[in-house]
Design brief:
The protein is α/β, with parallel strands linked by helices. The chain folds into two domains: 189 residues, Rossmann fold, CATH 3.40.50; 114 residues, Homeodomain-like (Arc Repressor Mutant, subunit A, Orthogonal Bundle), CATH 1.10.10.60. Helices cover 42% and strands 12% of the residues. The chain contains 14 helices and ten strands. The strands form three sheets. A six-stranded mixed β-sheet has the order 2-1-5-6-10-9. Strand 9 and strand 10 form a beta hairpin. Helix 6 packs antiparallel against helix 7. The longest helix is centred in the C-terminal third of the chain and has 19 residues. It starts with 9 loop residues before the first strand and ends in a 6-residue tail after the last helix.
């Protein structure tokens, strides 16, 4: 007897494991469930399945009663693997355990497979990501690289589309991924209606980089420490290497070499990162116009700030501010 009951609809099986994040399961049902044709007919049928039917623990104080087992995977056109907050073999050892191996063996050839957040560990452990570009939550990027060196990990994007295999970053990036799948299957108009009904953006600019705080490592003391402390109080001013070197009574060449040894980057790179941090803080916490923020952060002009922010994070100042302060913030 078929698990899916609506012939003609695209069949989506969501494979959940113990430690499930209910949010990720919810967005799959909600977003795919809201995709309809011009005649109002649902375009997808979504079924939840587990390695063993029955109770599945979540990362909260509720459990899920899942009626279907891995047999649903054999019928699915798309298999979606959310994250699990309980460590298992893919996340700790980089391999599939026996139940997951059996489940993946049921997936029919040609089916599309996608993951949300650390669900990418499962896809990688199954060998589906070798030689492919993929992403996962930025906090898990180092461990992912250690376990799966054959995968071209890009921790800065919200999702990665490799055709039949797709991966997404943290929880909310699952929304971006599912809207992308709907857009790919049925066009921007259908995906846009789903986004509007769900009160989410149909497309978000940039990637994970804009959500990652990357404070520049500071070493206490050191032969360039005084110059760095001095520069931090003058980020709005044009600072030259000669000025910084003079603070330490060094030649530019000696200062540059010692700075790199102590900080791990050139003085220019360090200044740029510090200025970006300052600009991000002002975009998040103030209503100052972009040209004023550019001046206060030491970029001089709004155009220069836009260029540096886009290079570092893939977004414009106004898009960054809207992400963190909402559309009512002053552009």
């Amino acid at each position: 007897m078929s698990v899916f009951t609506h012939p003609g609809r695209h069949r989506v099986a969501v494979l959940v494991r113990h430690g499930l994040l209910p949010f990720e399961l919810g967005i799959a049902h909600r977003l795919f469930g809201r995709a309809v044709s011009a005649d109002g007919e649902p375009l997808y049928e979504v079924v939840t399945c587990a390695l063993v039917p029955g109770e599945v623990r979540t990362d909260s104080d509720v459990t899920m009663n899942v009626a279907h087992g891995p047999e649903a995977l054999a019928e699915a056109d798309t298999v979606l693997v959310p994250a699990a907050n309980e460590p298992d073999a893919p996340q700790t050892e980089g391999r599939l355990d026996a139940p997951l191996t059996g489940a993946f063996a049921r997936i029919r050839p040609g089916a599309r497979i996608a993951s949300i957040c650390t669900g990418a560990f499962v896809l990688a452990a199954a060998g589906l990501l070798d030689g492919r570009r993929a992403t996962t939550h930025w906090q898990e990027a180092d461990r992912f690289r250690e376990l799966f060196p054959a995968v071209a990990l890009d921790p800065d994007v919200l999702y990665a589309d490799e055709g039949e295999v797709l991966t997404s970053a943290g929880d909310a990036a699952g929304i971006d991924l599912i809207l992308h799948i709907i857009r790919r299957d049925h066009g921007a108009a259908v995906a846009g209606e789903v986004a509007r009904a769900s009160v989410v953006a149909p497309h978000r600019d940039g990637g994970q980089a804009q959500f990652i705080r990357r404070p520049v490592p500071e070493r206490r003391g050191g032969s360039t420490g005084a110059a760095r402390a001095w520069a931090l109080t003058r980020l709005d001013r044009p600072l030259t290497l000669r000025e910084l070197a003079e603070r330490e009574s060094m030649s530019v060449r000696t200062f540059s070499r010692r700075f790199r040894d102590e900080v791990g980057m050139t003085p220019v790179q360090w200044l740029t990162q510090r200025r970006l941090e300052r600009a991000r803080q002002l975009l998040e916490e103030s209503d100052l116009p972009v040209d004023r923020i550019a001046a206060d952060a030491g970029f001089g002009t709004a155009a220069s700030l836009r260029q540096h922010l886009h290079t570092a994070l893939g977004v414009s100042p106004s898009a960054y501010r809207a992400t963190f302060r909402g559309s009512a913030a002053r552009p």
